[in-house]
Amino acid sequence: MTKLEPSPRNKALAGLAHWRHDPQRDAITRAFTFANFAEAFAFMTQIALVAERRDHHPEWSNVYNKVEITLTTHDAGGLTQRDVDLAHEADRIFQRFGTRK
Ligand SMILES: C[C@H](O)[C@H](O)[C@H]1CNC2=NC(N)=NC(=O)C2=N1
Question: How far apart are CA 87 and CA 23, in angstroms?
Answer without folding.
Answer: 17
